[in-house]
Amino acid sequence: MSAVSVSPQIIRWARERAGLSTAALVEHFPKYEQWEAGEKAPTLHQLEKLAQRTLTPLGYFFLPEPPEETLPVPDFRTVRDRGVRRPSPNLLETIQTMQRRQDWLRDYLREAEQPALEFVGTTTVSDEPIAVASRVRGALELTADWAQLYGTWSDALRALRRAIETIGVMVVINGVVGNSTRRRLDPNEFRGFVLPDRWAPLIFVNGVDAKAAQMFTLAHELAHLWLGQGGVFGLADMQPADDVAERWCNLVAAELLVPEAEMKRLWPEADQSQEPFQVLARRFKVSPLVAARRALDLRLISRDVFFSFYNHYLAEERRHAERRPSGGDFYLTQEVRIGRRFGEMVVRAAREGHVLYQEAYRLTGLYGATFDRYAKGLEGIGA
Q1: Does residue 53 lie within any of the structural domains?
Q2: What pLDDT does residue 285 have?
C-alpha cells in the first residue's frame, strides 16, 4: 500500500494533543519518528491506526495545518497566572457527549410541553451569597441543618445529588469517557463542568477527583446554574479561577455546605481538639477537606495550615483508594455515569415509543440486554 501525503506538523500535533510521548507511539509504529520528522510517510492503513491511537479524527490529518480546538463552553480552569493546556480529546468528547444528551432531553421535554425551570439564571453576582445559598436550599427542600440527617458525608453527598436531580438537573459523575476504562479523565485538567439550560441543565463532576472534593465541586456548579453561566472548572486546591463569577459561586457553595455563622460559632471548640477539621466534618456532614477550605476562607487558619492538611489528606485518600478493590456493580455505576434523571427520561421515552431503542442505546452508551437490565435496575434504586 502506498504512502499518503500528510504534514509532519499534523502528526506531531496529534501526538501532543493526545498527551503521548514519541516512545509510546514508536512501540506501535516503528517508523513513527521518521513520520514526525518528515523523512517517511505512513500508509492509509497506518494513518487510520494512528488516528485511533491518538484519538484524532482521521480527516484532521489531511488539513494543511493543525486546527484550533477550543472548548464549546467558557473555560474557568486558570488559577491566577497559571495557564492551562489545550483541551484533551477526552475532555472534548465528554463535553460533546453531554451536549448531545442535553439537546435530546431539551427537545423531549419541550415536545411534551413541560415548563421551563424557574431557577436557572435568576441571580447575579451582585446578589448576597448567603441569601442565594438560602434560596438554593429552599429550592432543594433542604433545611439549614439538612446534612445532620445523614450518618456520613458520603451519605450527605448522595442526598445532595438526588435533591439536585429532583428539581430537574441532570447530574453526571464519571471518571472515564463513557464506559471506556482505558480513557481516564484527568482531574488535573478539570474537575467538572456545567451546561445551563432552562429545560435540561447539566452538571458533570469528574469521578476520578478525590471523593472529598466532589461535594464542593457539585455545590459550586449548582451555584453556576442559579447564575445561568456555564463553564469548565479546574478548582485547583478547591480554589476558583480569578474571575468575579467564579469567586461568587465559591462563596455560595461554601455557604450552602458550611454556613458561616455556624462555622464561626463552632470553631473555638473545634480548634481545641487534635483533629479540628474532622470535628467540623462530622457536624456539617462534609469532608474534612471542605471543612478545612471553609476555615481558610473565613481566615480561621493560615494558608500553611490548610495546605499541610490538604496535601496530607489527599495522600491518605489516594492510599485508601489503591487498597480498595476495583470493580463494583456495573449497573449501579451507571446511575451516576449516565445520571438518574437522564436515564429515567430515555427509558420512559423508549418504552412509550417516543424514541427508537437504537437511539436510546446511542444516548446512554448501553446496548441490547445491557440497556434492558439497566432500565430494570433504575426501578429498584431507591430515591
Answers
A1: yes
A2: 86
What DSSP character marks residue 30? T
Q: Is residue 186 part of a domain?
A: yes
Amino acid at 297: D
Q: What is the C-alpha separation between 126 and 69, in angstroms, rounded?
A: 33
- 29 and 123 co-located in one domain: no
Cα 184 to Cα 186: distance, rounded to the nearest angstrom: 6
> Which residues lie across from 170 on neighbouring strands?
202
Amino acid at 89: P
Most confidently modeled of 14-18, 65-69, 80-84, 202-206?
Answer: 202-206
What residues form DSSP beta bridges with 171?
Answer: 203
First-to-last alpha carbon distance for the chain, in angstroms, is 58
| Segment (H or E) for 69 | none
124, 227 in Cβ contact below 8 A? yes
Gap between the Cα atoms of 139 and 119, Å rounded: 8
Q: Does residue 324 surpass a pLDDT of 90? A: no
With 0-12 / 13-18 / 19 or more C-beta atoms within 10 angstroms meaning exposed / middle / buried, residue 227 is buried
How much is the pLDDT for 378? 83
Q: What b/e readout covers 190-215, taking b as 16+ CB neighbours within 10 angstroms?
A: bbbbbbbbbbbbbbbbbbbbbbbbbb
| Banded model confidence at residue 315, pLDDT cuts 50, 70, 90 | confident
The verdict on residue 112 lying in a domain is: yes
Residues 367 and 222 in one domain: no
Cβ atoms within 10 Å, residue 302:
11
17 & 111 share domain: no
Q: Determine the Cα angle at 139 with ends 137 and 144, to 5°.
A: 20
Number of domains in the chain: 3
Q: What distance in Å separates the CA atoms of residue 307 and residue 342, rounded to the nearest whole number?
A: 38
- Greatest alpha-carbon pair distance for the chain in Å reads 76
- The answer to whether residue 138 is domain-embedded is yes
